[in-house]
## 1
Amino acid sequence: AQRVTQPEKLLSVFKGAPVELKCNYSYSGSPELFWYVQYSRQRLQLLLRHISRESIKGFTADLNKGETSFHLKKPFAQEEDSAMYYCALSGHNNQGGKLIFGQGTELSVKP
Amino acid sequence: GAVVSQHPSRVICKSGTSVKIECRSLDFQATTMFWYRQFPKQSLMLMATSNEGSKATYEQGVEKDKFLINHASLTLSTLTVTSAHPEDSSFYICSARDPRGYYGYTFGSGTRLTVV
């Protein structure tokens, strides 16, 4: 079964501090992993996907298959990074390509 | 590119009535769309997968007679909440995957349903 776990409900840091939002997954196969961000009163936006291996807004995430993790990192947090962050997984095979979300982590960056 | 439009953004209805929510892919064709429900301060819970031209696939615990899904064209999926009750009040979000690949899954802006 597909499962995504984000252990931290809330992460609070000061501006300029490093940030790491944790994500672990469970999937018997080769999953596709995503990070989505939801700013206040806005729709979900794609932040990163593991297959593109790019950095968006200073965020990076590396898929670690051994640890089944896809942690999101940023070396220097900014106040505008404050938002809800969701890790999500899409499987293949008989899963129909559906996207399953973790519980979400609220990032609060204080001045 | 890869825009999904959802309508209405907000609806209030009386108990016992039905409400239809539309989800359109504006610049791509979507053979598959997904419907989610989001409670306050919680994550998105997948309700069902909408398949163009065939029956929707519902997640465990989701009543298919309560939440009717129709995907009659490659750009439109609808979710009808039938005989709505106050406990159906929630934020409903649709999503589609852009077949061109780059944009991944794109989400609608959501519909806030309040049943009074």
## 2
Amino acid sequence: QVQLQESGPGLVKPSETLSLTCSVSGGSISSYYWMWIRQPPGKGLEWIGHISYSGSTNYKPSLKSRVTFSVDTSKNQFSLKLNSVTAADTAVYYCARGAVAGIVGWFDPWGQGTLVTVSS
Amino acid sequence: DIVMTQSPDSLAMSLGERATINCKSSQNVLYSSNKKNYLAWYQQKPGQPPKLLIYWASTRESGVPDRFSGSGSGTDFTLTISNLQAEDVAVYYCQQYYGTPYTFGQGTKLEI
């Protein structure tokens, strides 16, 4: 079955750029929408945005000025860049798939998540 | 944004009991053209990613025990967990996928 795995630095300095990649295995990145979701320690879930296999994006408005998604279909990967980070961006970052081909739908499956801490 | 509000924030139950978690959306998430409610429920255990339980408000994901059921329409939804088991200890989230930004409830912590 489809599996997702996040990778990237676990520590980012304030004002710098957080960069993460999600690798998709067991299935093609085509035909689906791919999500980034984050969860600050001890808090709830926040949808950051999604990207389609063709590269169209939809970002949460409050983060739109700082976030960029990209997709590499040849590597079956998609990526997140969040610039000008602050301590408020410290969170577990998850990648997930929109469950229904062609529309977003619910989110399934999810990656295991990676903790990114913003600190000097 | 569609605001999702869950109640209660936490729930303490006993083994074998029935738990009810409510979720209210600030806007209708029933799509009129297909009569489907764009609402999902997830279970999150400590240190794990959320696990999908229910989609379309009442369709159980494959492999999810039939003790879990979802109901409701429009703006008011319920997740019911019957015959509570020790492994049901988790935080439960509702989520709307009707419109962006997709939003989650604040979570309900279930203790047994």
